[in-house]
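Researcher: Let's continue the batch. This sequence belongs to PF00070 family, FAD-dependent NAD(P)-disulfide oxidoreductase, and it's 457 residues. Same format as the previous ones, please.
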Amino acid sequence: MKTDVIVIGSGQAGIPLATRLASANKNVVLFERAALGGTCTNYGCTPTKTMVASARAAHVARTAGRLGVKVIGVEVDFPAVVARKDAVVAQWHEGIDKRIADAGERLTVIQSHARFVGTKEVEAGGKRYAADTIILNVGARPIVPKVPGLEGVPFLDNTKLMALKALPKHLLVLGGGYIGCEFGQMFRRFGAEVTVVDHHGHLLAREDEEISNALEEVFRKEGISLQLGTEVESARKDGNDVVLRLKSGKELRGSHVLVATGRRPNTDDLGCDAAGVKLDAHGFIVIDDGWATSVPGVYAVGDATGEPQFTHTSWDDHRLLYERLVSRPSHGRSDRVIPYTVFTDPQVAGVGATERALRAKNVEFESATMPFGYIARALELDEKAGTMKILIDPKTEQVLGARIVGSEAGELIHLFAALMQAKQSVRAIVDMEAVHPTFTEGVQALVMRLPRFALKT
Ligand SMILES: Cc1cc2nc3c(=O)[nH]c(=O)nc-3n(C[C@H](O)[C@H](O)[C@H](O)COP(=O)(O)OP(=O)(O)OC[C@H]3O[C@@H](n4cnc5c(N)ncnc54)[C@H](O)[C@@H]3O)c2cc1C
Ligand SMILES: NC(=O)c1ccc[n+]([C@@H]2O[C@H](COP(=O)([O-])OP(=O)(O)OC[C@H]3O[C@@H](n4cnc5c(N)ncnc54)[C@H](O)[C@@H]3O)[C@@H](O)[C@H]2O)c1
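Model: Same format as before. Here are the structure tokens for PF00070 family, FAD-dependent NAD(P)-disulfide oxidoreductase:
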């Protein structure tokens, strides 16, 4: 069958590209081998942030005494938490189904695995489909680290953990990155014992030390055990327990293990060789600044490209690639800033470079830091944990990087992201009147800690 456009994968870029192209009178075939909506909707952002909200409610109730409110007997109804999560995911599915229906007859959705059998030809469900334009939005899946014995214990990934019917007694988390931190704190707040193990010396290894430290302090206070800078040598099952043996000889015993050690692209079963689509050494699809692969007319978007693995990045890939496909000018991958947020409590949000990265490249910078607890709003709400950091270019006053660990950090970081995208001086934040009492006042105070913006006598 010949069509105008083939989209493989219904992730954060695949569905909007397929539906918008169909609405623009292209005949589109969208292939999806699992649930429509991909990782974010089914096993990622939507379910986790829904469950994080329940975990926070439990935490706020348990600690309400600090605000002079007595709460007696906080109990987490884990099946109810899971049911609420499933209901929110179902609500998203309704939205996806409507969007696909609204795209009309030009869009055909085929629930099947698709793989290349030629340059511009794919096979799915025993049939062949060809198109001049093919878009790959195949996403990624968990990496299973080479730990002897791990394959033999029934370890969990993010999908399996969220499908549990009962709360684990003691969750061992392998990996202290995004998933390890979000799930680790969430399950601790639900009432499980939690131990996080990472071979790096800090949680969120890519961050500057003081950023990781701020989160580690909170985790330790909440009773999460951190085993950092240590290798897991082997794993084994012992009765109902799972045991991780560390290189030091120490053994960690838990009821369940979550593996959260990064995600690899879903390209090993895509038949890229048959098409001549080039992959890098880790299996990521090699693309140019305009999402074009090594085969003219074949594009790739989202997690499988090796760009930062975020929903907003994949969605933005769709927005910018669509403009190119309909011959409207658009900027490329390199001309955008990508903010991010780890949805722990406090959140950890960032944009641009870390100090470590700037130093490694010998880039000149000025920096300022400020504890989050200095903010009036933080004091009033008793949300004092965290810290903030800004790095600017001394010549242009533009932001090179910013990090916020604190309440609503994921909202606040956009102040810096917008300035960076507009390539404007951070002076705008000094000159802006910030409403009192808001967290944004604290962001302004952070910027005014840079000596050039300090109040003068
Ligand atoms: C637990 C967790 C929490 C997360 N939380 C956040 C968050 O809070 N914020 C954020 O920005 N990001 C978050 N992410 C990351 C985010 O989910 C992804 O970056 C996002 O979903 C983008 O994915 P994508 O569009 O590249 O592809 P995906 O959404 O992964 O979709 C790819 C689709 O392609 C299908 N597919 C693959 N190969 C084939 C094939 N050959 N044929 C047919 N179909 C195929 C797959 O079944 C899948 O449905 C989280 C991820 C996880 C795992
Ligand atoms: N809030 C969000 O935006 C969000 C939430 C969840 C996931 N995600 C995305 O999903 C991606 C994958 O998340 P992730 O947490 O799996 O990966 P990650 O890259 O964030 O963290 C993986 C961690 O595992 C550690 N690690 C790797 N191998 C190990 C081993 N053998 N033993 C011990 N530790 C080991 C690494 O040092 C690292 O700290 C993230 O990078 C992110 O892009 C985003």
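Researcher: Any comment?
Model: The pocket of flavin-adenine dinucleotide (ligand 1) is lined by residues 8-13, 31-34, 38-40, 43-45, 48-49, 113-115, 137-139, 158, 179, 266, 270, 302-304, 309-312, 314, 343 (CB under 6 Å).
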